[in-house]
Design a protein that fits this description.
Length: 119
């Protein structure tokens, strides 16, 4: 689903975590258009803004073809794995340093998949 509308950049706010909150104001919207916007709240997507009201078909096609898998999750796969291993380390009583635990567990995963390749 996408939103394509004319709007005005109303302002922005810098956040502590280095992200930026951006506000846009559109012209009047119908109830159905507002519902479509509401359905997209908290979704990752692509934001494209330019100070012109006309957009060529080729621009739309390019925007629709953008790959945004990298932004579907706020954390990378490696960050997620590290966080899960940290929770596991905590749940097992925090024996030793996490750095050592992390290295041991990731080595187990690497060894597991290497053995599958070597078969």
């Amino acid at each position: 689903m996408r939103i394509l509308t004319v709007g005005m950049l109303d302002g922005y706010q810098r956040r502590k975590d280095k992200t930026v909150s951006i506000r846009f104001v559109t012209q009047e919207k119908t109830s159905n258009e507002v519902m479509a916007i509401d359905e997209l709240v908290d979704q990752f997507g692509v934001l494209y803004f330019r100070a012109s009201e006309t957009m060529e078909e080729s621009e739309l096609e390019e925007l629709d073809s953008l790959e945004i898998d990298l932004y579907d999750q706020p954390k990378t796969q490696s960050q997620r794995l590290r966080n899960v291993l940290y929770k596991l380390w905590e749940s097992e009583g925090k024996h030793g340093e996490f750095k050592t635990f992390y290295k041991q567990k990731t080595e187990q995963v690497i060894t597991h998949f290497k053995s599958q390749i070597e078969q």
